[in-house]
Amino acid sequence: MTADWRRLDPRTLRVTLVTMLGVAVVAGVPTTVGLLGTGLPLLVIVPVGAVLLVLGGVGIDWLRWRHTRYRVTDSRVEVRHDFVVHTVKSIPRERVRSVDIDAGPVHRLFGVVKVRIGTGQQDKAGEVITFDPLDRALAERLRGDLLRRTTTEPATAVPGELARLDWAWLRYAPLSVSTPILGAAAFGAVMQVAEWFGVQADVVRAVGGFFASLSVVELVAVLVVIGLVVGVVGSLGLFVEMWWNYRLTRESGALVMRRGLVTTRSLTLEERRVRGLEFVEPLGARLAGAARLDAVATGLRVKDEKGHSVPRSLAPAMPKAKAQALAASILGESPPPTEAAGLTAHPVAARRRRLVWAVSGALAPVAVLALLGVLLTDVLLVIAGVVAVIAVPLAVALGMDAYRNLGHGLRGEYLVARSGAVRRRTVALRRSGVIGWRVVSSPFQRRVGLLNLVAVTSANSGAYEIPDVDAAGLAFADDAVPGVLGQFLDYGPGEAAATDK
Question: Transmembrane ranges (predicted)?
């Protein structure tokens, strides 16, 4: 790479122009419809505002492009802004840990990408440099050059492809919680658009007339079925958009994941920052025998610049056997530590706590309906009884499942913890990545001799919890990471082993 100061790609102005035109159209159409009938003077505001919006956006981005320079030398990556406030960001090349490349639809239209260079320091100020945009070919060369100079290939790691999209995995997409959410969102979108055009009441009357022959219960059932069908179609489309052309490869000591149809994404994760994996089984996928893998790594973003959660998945939901095989390939451990067989079960008191939580959550709406039934109408009392008959057994089943899923243990260099019912999660955390322990016990836990162990790490959100263990859990924590917690324990030599039994 050249050591000369260079401008960002000039196509940034075209990207901004098309983006702002899209914003103007999306905002202008409903505004125009809402102002129909108010007279010409108010309608003129819409095109004038759209022109000002587009020109203002392009002008601001021209200033950003005109006064931004970057360079990559043998020792540093630097970017500077020289307009009004002069700023310079600089990262030593030996500290570069990730070079991620994203391209939305407009970026792809013009053959440019957004490049984000980070140091793995949880996105602290000054630790991330963004080039938006760069030519795609230039961005790929930049990533390869930076990673080759900053990573060392592990002796046991074999470069090459670790996973590729199998379209058979598409069958797991509708089993996500997003399916009913997308269905409900579709109904909301129809009503919102109808309101923009002032025909919401007409839409409601048309739907009511079409289903006039149905009873209220039948109408609700039909709408639920329609919502689920729409949600299934939406979840399939979302899967295709997110995981199109998915590939996970090992390159120059880094894991590189590429995916995306409309918006392409590329995640680079230096392997020496990997502290483990999460084997995630949402309830729907678990019932179908599927799971996905999430990365546990230092400096991996939990939130983006706008505060939104950043997905950490290294693979979509796939058959469990394939997910375990992929985990073994990534971690270089066979069998993979994410396998849950042989984990230590948690005390019986933990089962009581989960049953109490589950049944209490189920009875809360029943109590509200019953109270309203006493005050208003007996119909609500009947509904409360029906809800109780359905919800309480389901809550008991979920509570028992949550208890059965509790477990912890050691797998060589990894600490393994499993928990959850609706979303079962098995985390395999490298023991050398645990920098401390937190021991938490509420008054209710202390009454039954339980506590929560929290493994503190610099990876991801910074903490992984092992809930509701007894005193033997303290010995387990001391055994998992010797010399951290043991100095605060009261037992003498040899007692830890006895307690652990």
Answer: 12-36, 42-63, 172-194, 214-240, 355-376, 382-403
What is residue 406's three-state secondary structure? coil
Cα–Cα distance between 60 and 17 in angstroms, integer? Answer: 11
Q: What pTM, to 2 d.p., does this model score?
A: 0.84
Comparing C-alpha atoms, which of 354, 347, 279, 348 is closest to residue 312?
A: 279
CB of 453 closer than 8 Å to CB of 477: yes
The DSSP code sequence of 88-138 is EEEEEGGG--EEEEEE-HHHHHTTEEEEEEE-SSTT-TTSEEEEEEEEHHH
Which option is the CATH number for 12-150: 2.30.30, 2.30.29, 3.40.50, 3.30.70?
A: 2.30.29
DSSP 8-state code for residue 244? T
User: What gap in Å lies between CA 468 and CA 281, rounded to an integer?
Assistant: 21
Enter the tokens of residue 34.
Answer: 């809402």
Joined together, the tokens standing for residue 29 give 């159409």
Query: Which of these, 349, 312, 255, 348, lies nearest to 427 by C-alpha position?
Result: 312
Asked if 268 and 140 count as a contact pair (C-beta separation under 8 A), the reply is: no
Q: In what order do the strands lie in the sheet with 414-419?
A: 313-319, 290-297, 274-282, 423-430, 414-419, 407-411
